[in-house]
């Protein structure tokens, strides 16, 4: 057991929920910041939340927002964390083209507000700060694979906002001697991945098509390539970054890259379907090899004004210094996500990392 106290922004998101679970297992007291919403938004953490009226708990939720500086200062003051994980963000790349100002406010300035809260409360020497940085920083990278030394070239308002967050984290480390560290994480997914990210959109559609609830899956650029890992592995890496003896920046990645097209093929294969591609460009269609049904079509609405074509990470620094490596490979990830969506479609309930 430990007397460590963690504060997590974005606790209701995919990573926040996995991280809260890991830290509770490691004996931490965990405080999470959730946003006020007109409908329930705590589904991912409902299974670890215990009503404080009922029995002792080490997991607490507080209302807050990264756009509200006074709220952040008060929460840091009240919860007195030894570790802060800044995972909260408007995290959707395509949405950031529609809401660039809000994305900058929450993702860039939100990070600054949290760092300032630490400084205002004079906690620079007692708090360790983790910033959720991203492989989107590399954007139009000239170098493959991408490592901590690869130059950044952001390709979206989201990536530009995260670039500011990355550098302000480095700056507070250098200027004030804070233990402030960036995890530059490549894409990581899970059965609780947000439904509008491409992997989950695909696995949900595969399950719905299998049950006869949907006919066609519409996608954008299926030739984009990503280095996809499992969120459970990556939150372990975040924790290790803050346990390191010095604050530093680390890439977490699998070292494998696959296209959206390959993800589609593998996902449908989980339900016994083979996809044959016909046509070209926006007219390309993914056809069921047995029935001839058009299961996948291209919708240019999902094309981005500027795209990130190829991400492939080199996590050798994290391996050497943190002893971190991924454990879940691409095929296993796709299988787990499809099986989870099939179980969900059949009425299963998510509990402790699986369906029961
Ligand atoms: P999610 O979109 O699943 O979760 C984002 C979380 O941030 C949610 O809890 C959301 O709340 C919260 N949030 C959004 N806006 C605000 C705000 N203004 N104030 C406070 N909280 C806010 O993202 P992931 O869990 O996938 O990612 C976690 C972090 O890691 C993000 O910062 C993301 O940009 C970054 N990242 C993610 C990668 C990935 O592949 N998953 C890779 C690299 C970086 P609500 O539930 O109410 O929407
Ligand atoms: P990404 O994830 O932009 O890499 O950001 P996303 O799953 O949204 O897109 C991956 C690739 O798939 C292509 N694509 C589509 N994407 C979506 N969402 N919907 C579609 O229909 C579709 N069709 C094709 C995209 O063009 C893109 O190339 C994620 C987020 O979690 C960020 O917060 C994080 O920082 C990065 O990963 C690393």
From TrEMBL:
Domain of life: Bacteria
Keywords, sorted A to Z: Lyase, NADP
EC identifiers of the protein: 4.2.1.47
Domain NAD(P)-binding: 7-337
Cofactor requirement: NADP(+)
Presence of the UniProt keyword Iron-sulfur in the record: no
Positions of transmembrane segments: none
Reaction catalyzed: GDP-alpha-D-mannose = GDP-4-dehydro-alpha-D-rhamnose + H2O
Molecular-function GO term, any one: GDP-mannose 4,6-dehydratase activity
UniProt keyword annotation of Lyase present: yes
CDD domains: GDP_MD_SDR_e (cd05260)
Function: Catalyzes the conversion of GDP-D-mannose to GDP-4-dehydro-6-deoxy-D-mannose.
Family label: Belongs to the NAD(P)-dependent epimerase/dehydratase family. GDP-mannose 4,6-dehydratase subfamily.
NCBIfam families listed in its UniProt record: gmd
Official protein name in the record: GDP-mannose 4,6-dehydratase
């Amino acid at each position: 057991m430990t007397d460590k106290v963690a504060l997590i922004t974005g606790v209701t998101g995919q990573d926040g929920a996995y991280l809260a679970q890991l830290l509770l297992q490691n004996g931490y007291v965990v405080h999470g910041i959730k946003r006020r919403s007109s409908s329930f938004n705590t589904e991912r953490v409902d299974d670890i939340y215990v009503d404080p009226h009922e029995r002792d708990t080490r997991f607490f939720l507080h209302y807050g927002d990264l756009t509200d500086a006074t709220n952040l200062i008060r929460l840091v003051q009240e919860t007195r964390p030894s570790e802060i994980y800044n995972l909260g963000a408007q995290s959707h790349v395509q949405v950031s083209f529609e809401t660039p100002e809000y994305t900058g406010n929450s993702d860039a300035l939100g990070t600054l507000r949290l760092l300032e809260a630490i400084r205002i409360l004079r906690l620079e020497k007692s708090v360790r700060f983790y910033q959720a940085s991203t492989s989107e920083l590399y954007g139009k990278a000239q170098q493959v694979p991408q490592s901590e030394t690869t130059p950044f070239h952001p390709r979206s308002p989201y990536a530009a906002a995260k670039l500011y967050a990355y550098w302000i984290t480095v700056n507070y480390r250098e200027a004030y001697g804070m233990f402030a560290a960036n995890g530059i994480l490549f894409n990581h997914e899970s059965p609780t991945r947000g439904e509008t990210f491409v992997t989950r959109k695909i696995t949900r559609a595969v399950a719905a098509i299998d049950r006869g609830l949907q006919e066609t899956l519409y996608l954008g650029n299926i030739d984009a390539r990503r280095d996809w890992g499992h969120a459970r592995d990556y939150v372990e890496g975040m924790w290790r970054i803050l346990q390191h003896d010095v604050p530093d920046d680390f890439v977490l990645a699998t070292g494998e890259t696959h296209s959206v097209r390959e993800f589609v093929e593998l996902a449908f294969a989980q339900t016994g379907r083979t996809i044959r591609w016909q046509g070209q460009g926006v007219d390309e269609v993914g056809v069921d090899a047995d029935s001839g049904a058009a299961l996948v079509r291209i919708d240019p609405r999902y094309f981005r004004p500027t795209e990130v074509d190829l991400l492939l990470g080199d996590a050798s620094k994290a391996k050497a210094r943190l002893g971190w490596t991924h454990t879940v490979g691409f095929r296993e990830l796709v299988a787990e996500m499809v099986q989870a969506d099939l179980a969900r479609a059949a009425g299963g309930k998510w509990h402790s990392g699986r369906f029961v």
